[in-house]
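Researcher: Let's try something more involved. This one mixes different molecule types, so please make sure each is placed in the same coordinate frame as the others.
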Amino acid sequence: MELIKRARQSQWYGVGLLLIVTALVWLVFKAMCPSTFGDPDQLLTYLQTGLIYAVGGCGLYFIVVMGLWDFSIGSVLVLSCLMAIGFSQSMGILGLIVAPILCGALLGAANGLAYIKLRIPSLIVTVGLSLIYESLSVFASGWSGTRLGDAYKMFGSYPWNLILAVLAFALCTFILKYTKLGTYVNAIGANEATAKNMGVNVDKYKFLAFVLCSTFVGIMAILYIGYGTAQTPMTGMLSQSLNFKPLMGTFFGLAFKKYGHPVAAIIIGEFIISMMFAGFVALGMPVTINNVVTGATLLAIICITTKRVKGAVVK
Amino acid sequence: MEQKLLLHAEKIDKRFGPTHAVNEVSLDFLEGEVHALIGENGSGKSTFTNMLTGILPIGSGTFTLMGHDVAPKNQVDANHQGIAIVVQETGTLGGLSVADNMFLGDEDQFIRRGIKDTAAMNRKAQELLDAYGLGYIKATSIIDNYDFEDRKLVEIVKSTWFDPAVLVIDETTTALSQKGRDKLFEVMDHVRELGHCVIFISHDMGEVLKMADRISILRDGDFVTTVNREDVDEDQLKTLMVGRQMDDHYYRTDYPDYAREQPGETAVSVRGVTVPGMIDDSLV
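Model: All components are placed in one shared frame. Result:
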């Protein structure tokens, strides 16, 4: 018992637990479809997909850990992809990298300002703004086109996608562990009033979290457009469907943050989800099963990560 | 030896809408004393000390600490001015490490070129925990790994390691077991020995009479009086608190007759009630 107690207090307990879950998921699908699932090459492909969403999940973590929501990340992603396409044509590789990151940061600043100044729930603010960003994406696609030039697809495959993703994860870990912002987003999420009492400038750090969130979505856009090579504008809230995969990784991070390694949990979580999608496809289920898996996994993760008090009022 | 004035509160006043929570209270706190602040719920004790420690803005009036007016903007600002508080409810934040909690809002001492020297912060936190005899609490661990009492002990270290001139203990003992209380009393004695002042809020009259040198009573936001511990007993304190003569029954005298007539019968039975991290079922 003492050994288990000590293991649970270890910082690596959560990561170990997730790796066990990863192995179990792999084993289950491998047993059911041994020839079409889970070979080393395929695992690398699952990882490649998972990395893209994990970068977005890292950004979203700064928001969700504070108890806020950002439902604009899908539209930020679309617009950032279009910026990457457009600016890569005029500025080359520099445009491909800088434009989406800058676009994300600016849209994040707009989200943060709107949330702080309007004093209405973050979910409503970001859904409202995402409609505007979606409209902007229509104009942007008219200017930039929707296909990434062949010369700029390097971030869609190894090793560049891995390098960029690792840099993003390192940046996220660094911010969470070695900056005041990392400490304060957790503090605000745990108890905003107490954090304020301790002198934390809550509005400032909420604003910065929104900027960071969309900046990471900008980085995700570089990987996303490199992998997909084309991006059409989305309107009528269609971009909302892009929110959920990064969000699931974020919830893994939240669930395992008490063990001290949320970024690792986000990465492994996205890998597990990516593997599950591939597993269902390998089983011969239609691609739309992905939506079922996304929805069910999202609900399951929320149930696990949220402290649900019996008898409490849930709105 | 005559004790010097450390902190003076001059006509401290606070209203919450129509409620006059603290009504122009003036009080002196001396060097090297444990000064208990007692009163019924709603008497204004916590509101008074919350204004002193920056948790609430001061309505009107002035706190003067060692000759300087103080009006902290928040708890960390209060700490920088030599005032600290250990609150009744949980004051640590989940998801952060023990060290992060201990230096929350005061990390600048570990910041070099914008980067937090987490290793140095962890080191210092562990040194402090060790010095308080709490070495079993690991500075690098996430605070969620510890129970309510250990988290409270971390708060005590957080609030006292820098030897504040004034330490407010706001009904903290309610949440502690005997082990935690002993540790808290040890810390209070240490603060007194340093020539500083402890403002001790408690509903436990036995505890107040054991620890306090002087006792001030508040009632419905008004200051009633300050007495020396040697001059009063528990009943006199209760009388001062409620404003009328008390018999043996402080809390309720209106129990149904059958409850008084049949002593020994179970009135309320509790079995296996647990609150994770707070109440262990083995204690019930």
